[in-house]
Task: inverse folding
């Protein structure tokens, strides 16, 4: 039997968040998106990570309705896009996202990228949404230490999550330790490095020892590091494979070998160049 990973972490405000979720970036075909999310919810995923810019909030909302899963058992995240940043603009963008998702609150809402001169006000708006109970947790994405320092210096409600690119080629150790000191939970985006390392010999060998695929090994590495992971797939077998990781554990030595694959290599945009995202 496949054992689906169901663990949750506790955010700084006491809210629970599933450690593993489905990322839906680049799911552009509406039917494929609906089918992928529906399948993920069927096999046991309870967290979905979308964003206004992905243009699939409507399909995400449809899949949620179709699933019939009680709202309080789901964890839905969305993000405000760069051109909608600023205080009033963020509040307006949030309203649109909420409507498309057919929900009356979100579990988490994030600043997508730290747009210079705007990300501070964007976060202020996110704090207001939290105070008004329209979101259950606050957060940011692609924030470096200096962005977080700036936010923390002014925040009444510190961000609870920072969603950043993180995988064995980019282990982000300094940012992880900063976030840990400040009670900010990290979510790893592109947790599989967009498929770039799936034939890496170390990962293949470790996988073989456990009867698991390299993708499952990588996801387990994120989770055992206390990170959240949101692998994306539109392929049913992979959606199930990525979550079928509750029946094995990596040893300390294997964890270290995977961490040693780090090359500080990004697959996506550097947050300092957010306008190229
Ligand atoms: P991932 O690292 O999740 O890799 C996705 C790719 O890997 C797809 O091509 C998928 O193919 C393939 N794949 C998935 N599972 C397997 C498997 N078991 N075996 C082989 N191949 C597999 O990259 P993403 O960039 O999509 O990141 C994940 C999520 O992170 C996004 O969907 C999004 O929610 C979030 N994200 C956030 C960003 C931000 O700025 N905050 C930026 C980028 C991503 P296929 O779908 O064809 O099966």
Result:
């Amino acid at each position: 039997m496949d054992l689906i990973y169901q663990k949750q972490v506790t955010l700084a405000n006491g809210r629970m968040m599933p450690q593993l979720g489905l990322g839906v970036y680049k799911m552009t075909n509406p039917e494929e998106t609906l089918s992928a999310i529906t399948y993920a919810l069927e096999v046991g995923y309870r967290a979905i990570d979308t964003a206004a810019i992905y243009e699939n909030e409507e399909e995400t909302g449809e899949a949620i309705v179709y699933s019939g899963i009680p709202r309080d058992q789901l964890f839905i995240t969305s993000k405000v896009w760069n051109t909608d940043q600023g205080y009033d603009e963020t509040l307006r963008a949030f309203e649109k996202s909420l409507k498309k998702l057919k929900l009356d609150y979100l579990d988490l809402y994030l600043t997508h990228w730290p747009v210079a001169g705007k990300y501070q006000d964007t976060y202020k708006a996110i704090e207001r949404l939290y105070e008004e109970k329209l979101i259950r947790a606050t957060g940011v994405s692609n924030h470096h230490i200096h962005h977080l320092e700036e936010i923390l210096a002014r925040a009444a409600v510190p961000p609870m999550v920072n969603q950043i690119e993180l995988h064995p080629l980019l282990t982000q150790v300094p940012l992880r330790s900063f976030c840990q000191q400040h009670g900010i939970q990290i979510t790893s985006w592109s947790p599989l490095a967009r498929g770039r390392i799936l034939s890496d010999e170390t990962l293949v060998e470790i996988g073989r020892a456990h009867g698991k695929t390299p993708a499952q090994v990588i996801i387990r590495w994120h989770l055992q590091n206390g990170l959240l992971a949101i692998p994306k797939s539109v392929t049913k077998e992979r959606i199930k494979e990525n979550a079928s990781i509750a029946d094995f554990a990596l040893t300390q030595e294997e964890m270290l070998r995977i961490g040693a694959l780090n090359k500080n290599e990004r697959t996506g945009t550097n947050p300092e160049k957010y306008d190229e995202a």
